[in-house]
Amino acid sequence: xxxxxxxxxxxxxxxxxxxxxxxxxxxxxxxxxxxxxxxxxxxxxxxxxxxxxxxxxxxxxxxxxxxxxxxxxxxxxxxxxxxxxxxxxxxxxxxxxxxxxxxxxxxxxxxxxxxxxxxxxxxxxxxxxxxxxxxxxxxxxxxxxxxxxxxxxxxxxxxxxxxxxxxxxxxxxxxxxxxxxxxxxxxxxxxxxxxxxxxxxxxxxxxxxxxxx
Length: 213
What we know:
Blueprint: H1 21-43, H2 47-50, H3 54-59, H4 66-87, H5 93-96, H6 104-113, H7 116-129, E1 134-140, E2 146-152, E3 163-169, H8 176-179, H9 183-190, H10 196-204
Antiparallel strand pairs: 1-2, 1-3
Helix pairs in contact: 1-4, 6-7
C-alpha cells in the first residue's frame, strides 16, 4: 500500500474568509504531502506494515517495529489526522447547518455536554490549552461515549482506543498566515466551516474504523 494525498472535496478558497486560500494550499499540498512522503519512506523496508491501513497501524503502535514506530506515530498520525481534518470542513453552507437536520450526533452532544454552546466551550478550551502543537478532538470510545480530548504533535486518539469524529489542527502552520499568534480567533472562526453532515457520518459508522472516504 502506497499512501497518497486524499482528494479535497472543495477548492482552496472555499473556506474563505475563515480559512484563507494560501494557508489551505500550503497546508494541504506541502505539509500533508510531507507526512505522506515520510510515512511511505519509513515503510519501504517493512512490507507487512506497508500493507496495513494507517488506522490499524496507529491503533496498535506497540505492534509496529520499533525501528519505524516513531515515524509511523508522527508521519502516519499526520496523514490520518489531516485526512479527517479536510473531511470535517466544507465550503458547502448546507452541510454546515445542523439545526434543522435532526442529527444524532447533535442529540448526543447535547446529552453529554448540555448544549452546543457548552460543547464548543469545552472543545475550545482543549484547543487553547494545548501547549505548542497538537489537536483538539471530539471522540467516541468503544461504547460510543463522547468526550473532548487534546493530543500533542501528530498523536491521534486512535492510539488511545478512541475514534475521532471531529478534529481541529492547532499547529501554527494551520492558521499563522491569517491569524498570526491569535489562536483563539482561529478556533472561533473554524466553527463556521465545520461539516456537520460529515461528523454525523463519522458518528454513525463508529463500528467501522475505516479511513474517511
